[in-house]
Structure formats: C-alpha cells, structure tokens
Amino acid sequence: MKAAEDYIKMFSDLIKAQGYISQQVFNCDETGLFWKKMPNRTYITAEEKMMPGHKPMKDRLILALCANASGDCKIKHLLVYHSENPRAFRSHKILKEKLQVMWRSNPKAWVTRKFFVEWVNLVFGPSVKKYLQERTYPCKPFSSSTMPLLIHQTSKMTSSRSSNL
C-alpha cells in the first residue's frame, strides 16, 4: 500500500513539476470483452443431478479506451475483432468507417503494435491536438509515450531519496 501511495504522490509531483494540467494527461488501456460467453456456473434445483452441457462460446473483442484525467476528452476507441467483415455488417450494409470506433481485425483479436501505432497516428494524435487547440491549452499532452520520461525521473528521485537516508 505504501508503495502505491508513494507512486501516486510522485506521479502527481512530476505532473505538476512539468507544468501539466489534468486536460493534458491522457491514459489509454485495453480491455477484452467475451460478448457471447456464458457464466462459469449455474444454480440448479436439488431434483436435478446435472445441468445439460453446452459448448462455451469464446467470441471476444478487444477495446482500447482512452481519455484525459479531467474526463472531458474521450478519444475514439480502437476495436479489434477476429473477423474483418462480420456477417451482420454485410447483411445490414454497415460501413466500418462510419462506426464510432476504429475497427481492425486479426485472427486472435489482439491489439498489435501496428494497430496501436496506426490508432495513435490517425485517431489519438489528431483528436488530442484538436481538443487542446480548441481550448487554447499548450499542445504537449502527457500520455504513455511520455512514460520513459516518468520512469527515468522516478528512478532518479528514488535513488536520490535512498542516498539521502
């Protein structure tokens, strides 16, 4: 617990020392959604000895979500699915370009480096730049790409603290 509390304070101090405001601090993470998966267990009555089995569905998609610390700028999501053109899209004539997400596909539904870099260049960068310019904030967003700076400064701060002990 102490390490987490120390890190939060150190991160907050670093953000303030670098002159960032919450509108400039962005976080991006990915999450998986098994959208057809059934619960692992079911409750059956005492009269029933067993529940008829079913083949578990493992249809999964991955979403990369991103927003700033103040919560007023949410970036268009990156969605990765195993199918390039799902049957539902074809039958309803849905254009992926019109979706509220950047749609990409690969057989394992993973966010690859290629997809992430493409999303950063086509969605994240332009969206953040537009957001910051519209609000006349300095155009220097703090995101995971800035993390090497944080790690370097954190290790310096930690080593200087331990040498002072």
TrEMBL record:
A GO-annotated cellular component: nucleus
Any coiled-coil regions, as ranges: none
PANTHER family for this protein: HTH CENPB-TYPE DOMAIN-CONTAINING PROTEIN, TRANSPOSON
Protein's organism: Trichonephila clavata
An annotated Gene Ontology molecular function: DNA binding
Taxonomic superkingdom: Eukaryota
Protein name from the UniProt record: Tigger transposable element-derived protein 1
Domain DDE-1: 58-134
